[in-house]
Amino acid sequence: MEGLEQIINYAISLTVGPASLLPISQDTASSISTLSRRSTRLDSYTSISSLIKGKGPRINLSQKTDMIVKAMEEKQASLESFLKKSHRIRRNLKSELEEFSLRESDIREAKNIFEFNVVTQGVDPLTQRIPAEKFLRYMEDWLKSAQFNIEKLRLRTASLKVQYKKVSATLIQRQELGENVHAVDFDQLQIENKHFLEKIDQKQTHLIELKRMNGGANLVLSKHKKYLQKQQEDYNKLKDSVSQQEKEIEDLEKEYEKVELELDRAKDKFEYYKNLKGTYKVPDVMEYVNLKNELSELKKSIKIWQRRKKIQDIALNACIREMKNITGASKVDPTWFEDLDPDSNYEFDV
């Protein structure tokens, strides 16, 4: 038995040592197992003969390969479990690092806000101290905001839990459906898919026909649109010309009214001068000469009286200035002219 254990350990140390960390596929494992089975059939006689002769049991090649395959499978399983465990630990550590970085950023932000609001701006200029009221108010506001953020995160986690439950339920349902599906169901699905493909082809052909009809209708519509646009432009031009002509007609009517008024005035003047011409009598020459002489005499007398009036006004103004100097008054007193004739017209230089 000691020799058997030594042989096993030696075989494992030779084969498993450098290759235990390498992944083995199922094909290689199955090939090794088949080779081991064939070798057992060939070497079974040698093992039996060795036992009959009284020698210790020997390990043939198939047993060695089986032992090696089992050891390699155990190593592979332990390696996979180690990898899964290391990935899980790595994810946990990464999430913890992210959490610590978020905490650090939150703490720095809270520190900066606290220093700005309480330490720098909260200092009393008289006592050079921070009042307790400002500190307590800041802490109450900060706790309220923290409570509000906690409520938001709680609602978010609750919604995520609900979504996770829904997704897990759908996954379980799909797994159950996948377990209950048979070959007949796949055949039925293929038949249904064929029918749906035929319907899709029909719909596509119908859609192509509709697109063709739509293209023709779009061409006709574009032609009618161009014609309508042209008609609209012509209509706008005619409308502008009609409005311009209406304006010209209004201007002509106004001019016509003005011309009628001028014509009426001209007719009235014509009638007046016609009547005047019919009833006019030329005066005698001597009478005209006498009237002309009287007019010239009256003009001369008017000029004389205007000169006399100016002279008397100058004398009156001089008298008023003397009265102001005598009396010391700044204004003209009406009592100075009580002895004057009320019918006389004098201009006073105040």
What descriptive keywords fit this protein?
single chain, 350 residues, mainly alpha, 6 helices, 84% helix, elongated
Question: Mind explaining what this structure looks like?
Answer:
The chain is mainly α. Among the domains are: 1-121, no CATH class; 124-180; 296-337, no CATH class. It is elongated. It has helices spanning 2-19, 26-52, 61-120, 132-180, 183-279, 285-327. One of its GO terms (cellular component) is axoneme. It holds the Pfam family CCDC113_CCDC96_CC. Keywords: Cell projection, Cilium biogenesis/degradation, Coiled coil.
In whole angstroms, the N-to-C terminal distance is 163 Å
Strand content: under 5%
In terms of structural class, how would the helical and strand content be classed?
mainly alpha
User: Helical percent range?
Assistant: over 70%
Identify the overall geometry: elongated
Element string (H = helix, E = strand): HHHHHH
Major beta sheet, specifics?
Answer: none
Domain CCDC113/CCDC96 coiled-coil: 149-311
InterPro entries: CC_CF, CCDC113/CCDC96_CC
Keywords: Cell projection, Cilium biogenesis/degradation, Coiled coil
GO biological process, one term: cilium assembly
